[in-house]
Specification:
By secondary structure, the chain is of the alpha+beta class. The protein has three domains: 66 residues, no CATH class; 41 residues, no CATH class; 99 residues, GMP Synthetase, Chain A, domain 3 (2-Layer Sandwich). 38% of the residues lie in helices and 24% in strands. It has seven helices and six strands. It has a three-stranded antiparallel beta sheet with strand order 1-2-3.
Length: 218
Amino acid sequence: MSRCQRPFRQKVSRLSRPSSPARIQNWPGRVKTGNDPLLACDHAAAFSANQSLRTKSFRRKLARSWNSRCDPVGTMKRKASAVWQGGLKDGRGTISTESGVLSDVGYSFARRFESEPGTNPEELIAAAHASCFSMALSAQLGEAGLTPQRIETTATVTLEKLPDGFSVTASHLDVSVTMPGADAGKFNEAAKKAKEGCPISKLLNAKITMDARLNPGS
């Protein structure tokens, strides 16, 4: 049973049916729906269908609705956009993200293939991989009953020119974790699972390597 289900089931067990649809929002025994229209609709639908709110089938239905808002499940879509103007070597481009964290950030041939300061696609891939892995490792450590104080990850993405063109061929994760009193065996197993299970690792068609160090801390 999830952390969300426990309080939910306790609340549902105390539910009593309102005397009329008009009184549903003032119903003393109802689950607090706040601004959640779907939970409110579940209540109204159950009433109009003349279903008892004490039935197991309805409690399961409402639990699924409740838990879908507690747990990070389902399909998520994130957007970013790029605009390029001009030729490959003399042109310039900008990158923006839906969140606004990146807004018309410049990139160019020189920033990607030469030494001009600025970001480029491979650097952004490295940032995505490092951040994704750190969260995946935290999750795996939690599954093992461990809580890290600090996870530091540096991802180094390699772009190579191959016979058929340029390709991202590798991403190396350099990981340092501070976790006093942790079991080294559990840590290494969690790090391996995180490297393989991280969504960005799965996305990359590249060789992924890792050096993971456990710091005992204070």
